[in-house]
Amino acid sequence: MTESPAPESTLQAALTEATDTRVIVAGTDVLDRTGNVFTEVFGPGALAQPVADENTWAVAGDQVRSSLQQAGVALAEPFVLPGTPTVYADYQNVERIREHLRTRDGVAVVVGSGTLNDLVKLACAELERQYLVVATAASMDGYAAYGASITVDGFKITRYCPAPVAVVADYGVLADAPARLTATGVGDLIEKVPAGADWMLADALEVELITDRVWQLVQGPLRASIADPEALAAGEVGAISRLADGLLMSGLAMQANQSSRPASGAGHQFSHLWEMEGLGLDWEPPLSHGMKVGLGTVALCALYEVVLRRDLSTLDVDAAVAAWPSWEQTEAQVRAADLPDSVTEAAVVQCREKYVDADQLRTRLQSLVQQWPALSGRLRAQLLPAADIEQRLQVVGAITHPAQIGMDLDRFRATYTRARLIRSRYTLLDVLSEANLLDDCVAELFAPGGFWAERPWS
Question: Is 39 exposed, middle or buried (0-12, 13-18, 19+ CB in 10 A)?
Fold first, then answer.
């Protein structure tokens, strides 16, 4: 891995790494270019099938339709889903959209943001069709991402499927989006800080190697994208454009890597677990993915601070290996983890994928011990203090404390040990579990003087 930062990539340069997306038009007053983009990508004879919900259609639908008409594009009647309740990323909604599109030969033109984009993305993948998306909020990194986060039978995971062929992102439209949507975008993007540290651990221990060019797509623009929370909260177009570019670059990185690894770590696992449990689903509007991810980011950065106060080069490898459970014991732990019934079997499969036996564990921990002096320094350089993450999220109006989402201390604390069970992705939670340190490090967060002890539930 290259340790010195590379120059910031531009969106157009990043497109050379993309596997699916061929055109990104991002700027101010670019909605009227949608029709030309459509004909450039799909040809002048293609039929456009707009898909939106009532809220997103009200924001940009008429302009998109007008641009398509002016470009001579044939239009199907827009398929507009209800705006209340907000469309939820459940597979039943994928089926609903897929069956509507199946009866037409048109190209889907999504006018919307996170959930709607993911639903149409997977529906089009199942129909083996391409699509275009017009962004309406800087609320998540999924616009240009390879994959869609969809819940199937209660289990939420990224279903890998092609990204849109074209993206149109009008910074003015994004800046005018409700502040809560910008806040959720900040929450989604800021998790790339500890997610990068998680990938560094996986790379160092030869679980999942870093590709420099993909790493730079996410990490290159990241600091600038989250640097001015006050301007983001005020909806300033310049700050929103940097946030949007960071989110788009993150999506392109997932295309280049053909997975969400470059942009998703244990902070996302926190959110996915809570989503599987239905947390905030009955809110209006529902509690967004990025809001939960932001809280997960604070939680993980706080845990990293505990770990980095320790010298893991002195880890007792023999004791950790002796404490390591067999696969049968691990499976029993997963089944006893009070996961939703619909999640348990899938979680067993995920944990089996990353389980190592005692001999493999010994080799891995010996490598950790040997590398820790240098590795810990690189991790410190990658991370931001948990209090800094917390402050930035508070400024933009994001969630920073479990009590804000009705979660008690015991449930939140248990998330540190339960979140790793639902994904095969290797993160800090797995490193600490394998080193037999997870319980002790989490306890330190809640002990007197610890990060969460200093932020009481009230």
Answer: middle
> 11-181 in CATH: which number?
3.40.50.1970
DSSP state of 87: P
Q: Which of 137, 138, 96 is nearest to 120 (CA)?
A: 96
What is the C-alpha to C-alpha distance for residues 132 and 241, in angstroms, rounded to an integer?
Answer: 20
Question: DSSP secondary structure string, 184-219?
Answer: HHHHHHHTHHHHHHHHHHHHHTTSSPPPHHHHHHHH
Q: Which residues pair with 75 in a beta bridge?
A: 48
Cα 289-243-271 angle, rounded to 5 deg:
15
Q: Mean pLDDT throughout 108-123? A: 91
Write the pLDDT tens digit of every residue in 315-341. Answer: 999 999 999 999 999 999 999 999 988
pLDDT digits (tens, 9 = 90+) for 420-435: 999 999 999 999 999 9
From the list 129, 118, 139, 136, the residue with the least C-alpha distance to 165 is: 129
DSSP string of 275-319? Answer: HHTTTTTTSSSPPPHHHHHHHHHHHHHHHHHHHHTS-GGG--HHH
Q: Are 214 and 7 in contact (CB under 8 A)?
A: no
Q: Which residues are CB-contacts of 156 (< 8 A; sequence separation ≥ 6)?
A: 89, 149, 150, 272, 275, 276
pLDDT > 80? residue 109:
yes
Would 11-181 and 184-211+259-446 be classified into the same CATH topology? no
Q: What is the rounded average pLDDT of the residues 383-389?
A: 98
Give the residue-averaged pLDDT of 382-395.
98
Cα 121 vs. chain centroid, distance in angstroms?
A: 16
Instruction: Identify the band that residue 227 occupies on the pLDDT scale cut at 50, 70 and 90.
Output: very high
Averaged pLDDT score across all residues of the chain? 93
Element (H, E) at 49: strand 47-53
Classify domain 184-211+259-446 by CATH number.
Answer: 1.20.1090
* Phi, psi torsion values for 183, nearest 5 degrees: -60, -40
Tell me which residue of 364, 348, 146, 335 sits closest to 258, measured CA to CA: 146
The set of residues, in sequence order, having a beta carbon less than 8 Å from that of 427 and lying 6+ positions away, is 198, 201, 202, 265, 266, 269, 420
Closest CA to 8 of 227, 278, 261: 227
Length of the chain: 458
Residue 428: name the closest of 301, 330, 329, 310 by CA.
301
Mean pLDDT of 338-362: 94
Domain spans in the chain, listed from the N-terminal domain onward:
11-181, 184-211+259-446
pLDDT for 219 equals 96
